[in-house]
Amino acid sequence: YQVSIYRIRKPMIKVAVLDDYQNAFQQIVEVEKYKNKFDFKVFNNPFMDEKEAIVELEDFEALFIMRERTPMTKSLIEELPKLKYIMTSGMRNKSINLEAAKKKNIIVCGTEINPNPAAEITWALILGLYRNMKQELDNMFQGYWQTTIGFELKGKLLGLIGLGKIGTQVAKVAKAFGMEVCAWSENLNLSHASEIGVLPMSKEDLLRNSDIISIHLVLGERYKNLITKKELGMMKKTSFLINTSRGTIINEQDLVEALKD
Rounded to two decimals, what is the model's pTM? Predict the structure, then answer.
């Protein structure tokens, strides 16, 4: 007797990678390693609206989402019948409706948080502003050389709104530059602040006295529109405001008006 053996292949899991406009996914994940298990589709551009998202994602069982770019709303989740799994970069993602996912037994998880890049980009922005890097680089390409004079960081006051993992790293670098550092948040750990040489301060005093203000908060209802026209009006005319946290912590319209005025 001739016996034929057929191997039944399991269908591949369809995975959508959303909002990867930097083409980072395929640089980080070894796609070839998983090609027999997963059918990846990368979406580099954002969806026009939720209706388009529903049409594009209805056949996918898993979504890999990049931070808070496409909101995983209740209505979107309910319209994706095959969805079983959502994974986000980082452990916090306010754009996912967790209750809606739970009702549909969809697993939601995230990756480990790395505080280093946010602290590093904060200092890149501070140094760039204090030394007029953008202006000087643009001028150099136009054939000019050293058209402005920068500012010295030593002795300046850095005000940190938030003193968690990222704020703490920013504070330590400031100390290395010889800066004074103060901090405020609603749940500021006073013993931790004292340990790293950071002066606790009221929000109002921090805004009035700081030469540089840097925001390092987790976005929640209590911190939404934390910085409005009133707070911007307290700041020195010469101070710098750095926000590597979430946009809505600062009221955008009030910020535009403050910059114009």
Answer: 0.82
